[in-house]
């Protein structure tokens, strides 16, 4: 990172060369190192920073828009409102304003309808098919998987799919891909040139703008997803379908001075629930605010199949998970940040607003204390595939139900194991809580999902009480080996899309099967992250040092005004043919 006040410089290659190397092996879980790490922590040999975040400030903040499937016009209108609303003057923010009165979780009508369809279809199938069984959270009859909600259960050979469906929100932000020289036709006097991103260009002097400098070849709106390592960017290779629409930004490798062909490249393909994208690999530089990730391998979208891509106005996906999930040993984006020492500290954090679709953010390299209260407490990642921490218990009211995640025969063995109070031999399962920005709701599977739906039934919002819908509790294990309870009341796990006396609230739970190799587990999705500010920390970069930090999020005037100030020079989402 360049010193304050200095422009970032890029090295522009005059000649492009590459060698074909065999794919490197994806990193797995370093069992011995991780076990030693946890043992030291549990022995109490850690500093305060091992347990709590030091509070250092972020290098950059990217504002995100939450797309809730209410149409492109709704998205553009919300972005225009965000741009037009002025930030509250600092003199009025000396003391924190009280947050609004707590209401039930709000989602769009489209998402609520999709969730209800998902819930009812699964429960009806389980009830109607008497000879069907729930195996690992999936309906199985005569050895075959049963369809529900209109799609097949995901193939376990491809567990790291980004779910682009009307059930999920997508958090969209802008990044730069590739490098071009500007003004057009200029000739560099050397190999080191000033880079001017969108914000830097706005603040640049006329002399800097006229001098030969580097700009982004393309500025694309991507989904930020902690649940995958997918990296895809819409490209000019696409000549039909949503990715060929003129109002969408597309990457052009022939224009980029930093493009490299991918060694041993082939055509990639990935399923997205009800859609599919394909395209070849490429290598180029990615730019976000003041930092760059050089020579990042990604997929250039050549074709898109399925209505999902017509409904979701995005031009790419940026996965933020671990190397073990990456196909063909491709270096994930976060590991590119680590290799390039791009942001000083190898961490990023998410802040999600409960009521403003335009007021969300990802913090790079640190945090900002305006967006959370109390300490950010760390929890070690127990298997660096997903961002998964140890889930010690899940309760509805005072009843512990976590054992219901297991198939019945394993459940009985697990209970017997507990009753004998045996020490862990490595055979007892470690339950996991997976924190995922690509999933909107809480999840459960198998018998636990059925029990949740039975105990937390849908009913009119006005009739819900603490007795009918008691608190739910997730118990996690921190870096000191201590348990911490995250208690949510019914306002935080029951949802609706409309107001009024007759409004019906439904549980914000969906059935998702965590692949057996990485379970058993429950996903804490976006609804959880609206309540808790979350830090995803890779430590020195080694996967066994990964940890997740959590603190109570703040949603008040000060937080909103602070975000407006931090991202004032960033663009709002729009289409070239729109008037916003």
Compact summary:
By secondary structure, the protein is of the alpha+beta class.
Descriptive notes:
This protein has 580 residues and is α+β, with helices and mostly antiparallel strands. The two termini are 33 Å apart. The strands form 6 sheets. Strands 7-9-16-10-14-13 form a 6-stranded mixed beta barrel. Strands 20, 21, 22, 25, 26 and 30 form a 6-stranded mixed β-sheet that branches.
Q: Characterize the overall form.
A: globular
Give the neighbour order of strands across the main sheet: 7-9-16-10-14-13
Instruction: Enumerate the spans where pLDDT stays under 50 for 5 or more consecutive residues.
Output: 1-6, 11-45, 135-139, 141-164, 412-417, 419-425
Number of helix segments?
A: 13
Class from helix and strand fractions = alpha+beta
- The overall average pLDDT, rounded, is 80
The main sheet comes to: 6 strands, mixed, barrel
Q: Helicity range of the residues?
A: 10-25%
Computed Rg: 24 Å
Task: Give the N-terminus to C-terminus distance in angstroms.
Answer: 33 Å
Query: Approximately how much beta-strand content do the residues carry?
Result: 25-35%
Number of strands: 32
């Amino acid at each position: 990172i360049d010193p304050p006040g200095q422009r970032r410089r890029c090295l522009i290659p005059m000649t492009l060369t590459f060698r074909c190397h065999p794919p490197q092996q994806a990193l797995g879980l370093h069992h011995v190192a991780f076990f030693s790490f946890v043992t030291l922590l549990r022995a109490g040999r850690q500093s305060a920073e091992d347990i709590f975040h030091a509070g250092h400030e972020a290098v950059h903040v990217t504002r995100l828009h939450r797309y809730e499937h209410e149409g492109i016009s709704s998205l553009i209108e919300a972005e225009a409102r965000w741009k037009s609303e002025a930030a509250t003057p600092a003199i009025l923010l000396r003391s924190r304003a009280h947050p609004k009165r707590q209401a039930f979780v709000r989602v769009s009508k489209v998402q609520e309808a999709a969730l209800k369809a998902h819930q009812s279809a699964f429960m009806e199938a389980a009830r109607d098919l008497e000879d069907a069984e729930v195996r690992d959270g999936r309906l199985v009859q005569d050895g075959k998987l049963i369809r529900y909600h209109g799609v097949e259960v995901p193939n376990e050979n491809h567990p790291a799919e980004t779910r682009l469906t009307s059930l999920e929100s997508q958090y969209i932000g802008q990044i730069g891909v590739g490098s071009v020289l500007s003004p057009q036709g200029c000739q560099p006097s050397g190999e080191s040139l000033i880079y001017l991103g969108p914000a830097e260009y706005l603040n640049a002097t006329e002399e800097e703008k006229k001098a030969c400098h580097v700009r982004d070849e393309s500025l694309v709106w991507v989904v930020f997803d902690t649940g995958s390592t997918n990296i895809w960017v819409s490209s000019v290779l696409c000549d039909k379908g949503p990715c060929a629409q003129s109002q969408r930004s597309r990457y052009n490798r022939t224009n980029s001075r930093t493009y490299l062909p991918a060694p041993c490249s082939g055509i990639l393909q990935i399923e997205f629930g009800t859609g599919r994208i394909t395209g070849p690999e490429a290598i180029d530089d990615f730019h976000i605010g003041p930092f760059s990730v050089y020579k990042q391998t990604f997929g250039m979208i050549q074709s898109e199949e399925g209505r999902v891509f017509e409904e979701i106005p995005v031009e790419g996906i940026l996965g933020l998970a671990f190397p073990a999930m990456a196909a063909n040993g491709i270096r994930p984006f976060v590991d590119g940040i680590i290799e390039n020492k791009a942001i000083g500290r190898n961490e990023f954090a998410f802040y999600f607003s409960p009521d403003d679709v335009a007021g969300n953010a990802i913090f790079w390299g640190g945090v900002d204390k305006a967006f959370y209260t109390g300490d950010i407490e760390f929890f070690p990642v127990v298997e660096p595939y997903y961002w998964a921490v140890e889930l010690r218990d899940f309760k509805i009211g005072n009843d512990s139900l976590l054992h219901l995640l297991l198939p019945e025969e394993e459940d009985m063995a697990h209970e017997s194991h507990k009753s004998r109070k045996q020490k862990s031999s490595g055979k007892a399962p470690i339950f996991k809580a997976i924190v995922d920005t690509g999933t909107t709701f809480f999840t459960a599977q198998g018998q636990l999902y059925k029990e949740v739906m039975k105990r937390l039934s849908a009913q009119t919002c006005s009739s819900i009480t603490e007795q009918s819908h008691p608190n739910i509790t997730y118990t996690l294990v921190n870096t000191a080996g201590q348990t911490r309870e995250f208690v949510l009341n019914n306002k935080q796990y029951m949802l609706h899309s409309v107001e009024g006396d007759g409004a019906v609230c439904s549980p914000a739970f969906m059935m998702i099967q965590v692949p057996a190799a990485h379970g058993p587990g429950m996903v804490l999705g976006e609804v959880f992250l609206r309540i808790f500010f979350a830090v995803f920390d890779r430590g020195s970069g080694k996967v066994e040092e990964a940890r997740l930090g959590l603190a109570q999020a703040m949603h008040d005037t000060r937080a909103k005004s602070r975000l407006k100030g931090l991202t004032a020079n960033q663009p709002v989402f729009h289409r070239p043919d729109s008037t916003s």
